[in-house]
Amino acid sequence: MNTRLFALLALAASLATPALAQETIKIGELNSYKAVPAFLDPYKKGMELAVEEVNAKDGVNGKKLEVISRDDGANPGEAVRVADELVTREGVNILAGTFLSNIGLAVTEFAGKKQVFFLAAEPLTDKITWQNGNKYTFRLRASTYMQVAMVMPAAIAAKKKRWALIYPNFEYGQSGVENFKKLLAAAQPDVQFVTEQATPLGRLDAGAVVQAVDDAKPDAIFNLEFGTDLAKLVREGNTRGVFKNRTVVSLLSGEPEYLDPLKDDAPVGWIVTGYPWNKIDTPTHKAFVDAYRSKYNDYPRLGSVVGYTTMRSLAAGIAKAGSSDTEKLIAAFKGLEVDGPFGRFSYRASDHQATMGAYVGTIALENGTGTMASFKYVDGAAVLPSDAEVKKLRPVAD
């Protein structure tokens, strides 16, 4: 009797285990958490909030979302190793995340080779959806081309002839500068780029860079530095008066992650892309802020929006596909519409790029803290190239 009972229990356990495994939809997520905590701590909070909201409403297609996160070491080789571990050991067929553009490209290549769905959350280089794009990779965040195009009207309106360029010397910075030079030269053929300061990521020598810029006597500056490098640049530039009476156009510098630590050193007057979280009064954004503050007793950063919208996008795609099957999910993401904190946007079928936009404005000081003023939301769809143009940029056929 005991032997028979044991056998029945063992059989029940063997049958139950696969069933339990089917109760969740696994998403493998990797990011440079240790290297870029200012952005990625809020990102993870936003991601967790979205998963909690989805699962509280019976998940997707009756199954809960389960996110398995790993740190990619801010290294492309390590990122590929981690991605492979998530796929082979954890059994995921959906990957998401990455922050740095070179890492995003490495995982994009991995996804194409291994035929795994990948939603690149944050990496900005255009190559992810254009030159190096593949069938399996989609991207959420507005790319370098998109963000440069968003600030271009202000750069053109400034009517400055001599420009200095400051950027981190890796894929994101190189891509951003290439786009800026191309778009500005097309609109203003007599423009001159009098100096390029390409700096090692995370190791900016602010004194040397600021001096080189001042020596070149530019009329205007285009900047792509972010994080601690941005803080060093701003403080040294303020001390030496390098930004005074010069137009400065800068990507990302209006994001709270990078603006808040500057406090009253915030570079007033800079034209930036960013996130004025406490001034956006749309119903969808207010609901997001209320939920975020209720859960974390803190205000959201741009990373919070990206993490939240990444998971909301995956939930919407899986629901539309009716499955987490790779081919069905790819088909569902083409033209997928998603409601995020910035409003409704879609993923384009032609290049897998999301049309989620960004806020453009100028930096101002309010109560001793940097903020964005005179800002507006620029829809990503308004600055993206046409499908016909994309065919020239994206060699892969889906």
List keywords for this structure.
about 400 residues, alpha/beta, 7-stranded mixed beta sheet, 5-stranded parallel beta sheet, single chain
- Fraction of residues in helix: 40-55%
Question: What's the rounded overall pLDDT mean?
Answer: 94
The number of distinct β-strands equals: 14
**What is the N-to-C order of secondary-structure elements (H for helix, E for strand)?**
HEHEHEHEEHEHEHEHEHEHHHEEEEH
Major β-sheet annotation:
7 strands, mixed
The helix tally amounts to 13
Q: How big is the Rg?
A: 23 Å
Low-confidence stretches: 5-10, 12-21
End-to-end C-alpha gap: 60 Å
- Neighbour order of strands in the largest sheet: 7-6-8-9-10-13-14
Compile the SSE list and pairings.
Blueprint: H1 2-21, E1 24-31, H2 37-56, E2 64-71, H3 76-88, E3 94-97, H4 101-114, E4 117-120, E5 137-139, H5 144-158, E6 162-168, H6 171-187, E7 192-199, H7 206-216, E8 220-223, H8 227-240, E9 247-254, H9 256-259, E10 271-274, H10 283-296, H11 302-321, H12 326-333, E11 337-340, E12 343-346, E13 358-366, E14 369-378, H13 387-393
Parallel strand pairs: 1-2, 1-3, 3-4, 4-5, 6-7, 6-8, 8-9, 9-10
Antiparallel strand pairs: 10-13, 11-12, 13-14
Report on this structure.
This protein is of the alpha/beta class and 398 residues long. The chain contains 13 helices and 14 strands. The strands form 3 sheets. Strands 7-6-8-9-10-13-14 form a 7-stranded mixed β-sheet, sandwiched between helices. Strands 2-1-3-4-5 form a 5-stranded parallel β-sheet, sandwiched between helices. A two-stranded antiparallel ribbon has the order 11-12. Strand 13 and strand 14 (369-378) form a beta hairpin. Helix 5 packs across helix 6 and helix 11 (302-321) crosses helix 12 (326-333). 48% of the residues are buried.
